[in-house]
Automatic annotation (TrEMBL):
Organism of origin: Streptomyces pactum
Domain of life, per lineage: Bacteria
MF terms (GO), sorted A to Z: phosphotransferase activity, for other substituted phosphate groups
GO cellular component, one term: membrane
Protein name per its UniProtKB record: CDP-alcohol phosphatidyltransferase
Keyword terms: Membrane, Transferase, Transmembrane, Transmembrane helix
Length: 257
């Protein structure tokens, strides 16, 4: 995919170089995993596809946003994305043979821990941006999807509801634009989102009896259904009471409250 380096005086090369470094780090991690566990073709292809897709989409988004620099917070998120790529490769390879659970748990745990770091770095350095927030959210969502695939191999396909719910919401927003209105800040929403990875990791670690793991995953699904249901209800009520006001107008009203 060819990307122009300059556009109206904007030099995209510095940020593109950082995304290229991220792709290189991803390939290096895959090489280390492949050496350590003898990863099969599915793992390699999935990991490489993830690396290429991350590089291509992120490079394009950075070019369009015209950020002057990549920023420290985005570097943390890119490092987390690299770990998620490793987890993705391991899960894809698990259809051939079970990967070392400790390795998968270790990579996932570090990725989840870093999820609480990039936001703090962005705020402390004054480098918060809509692109950075979206990048962070997409990495989170994809990790949850991959973990749900892994846990579903033991618990059943119903676990995929956890990983797929956010993507169903995005698809539904294309049919019902009122779902795209901005939501008010919510600690509960953030807590539920953070718990998804933790609970799926607990179930995937296979340290507890099967029945207990089932309960853990059901808890994660129940919390997610409650969180999405509450937000959809709020958006629906807002669209009705405000006559389907544009998202920008709704946000102005929220700020004024």
């Amino acid at each position: 995919m060819a990307l122009n380096n300059t556009y109206d005086g904007y030099d995209a090369r510095p940020v593109q170089q950082e995304t290229a470094v991220g792709a290189g780090a991803q390939i290096l991690l895959l090489a280390l995993l492949g050496t350590a566990i003898g990863m099969g073709t599915a793992g390699w292809l999935t990991g490489l596809a993830f690396a290429f897709a991350t590089w291509a989409v992120l490079s394009r988004a950075l070019h369009r946003s015209r950020l002057p620099s990549f920023g420290p917070a985005n570097r943390v998120t890119l490092g987390r994305a690299t770990l998620v790529g490793g987890v993705t490769a391991l899960v894809a390879d698990s259809f051939r043979s079970a990967p070392p659970v400790s390795l998968l748990v270790g990579l996932t745990a570090v990725a989840l821990i870093l999820d609480g770091v990039d936001g703090k770095v962005a705020r402390r350095t004054g480098t918060s941006s809509p692109l950075g927030a979206r990048f962070d959210m997409e990495v989170d969502a994809f990790l949850i999807l991959v973990l749900s695939v892994y846990v579903a191999m033991d618990q059943g396909p119903w676990v995929l509801l956890i990983g797929g719910m956010r993507y169903v919401f995005v698809a539904a927003a294309r049919a019902w634009p009122w779902l795209t209105a901005p939501l008010p800040p919510s600690t509960a929403r953030k807590t539920v989102a953070a718990l998804q990875g933790v609970l799926l990791l607990v179930a995937g670690a296979e340290l507890l009896p099967h029945a207990v793991n089932t309960g853990v995953v059901l808890l994660a699904l129940g919390l997610l259904v409650w969180s999405f249901g509450r937000d959809v209800l709020w958006l629906w009520r807002t669209a009705r009471t405000r006559g389907g006001a544009p998202a920008a107008e709704v946000m102005r009203e929220l700020v004024a409250q």
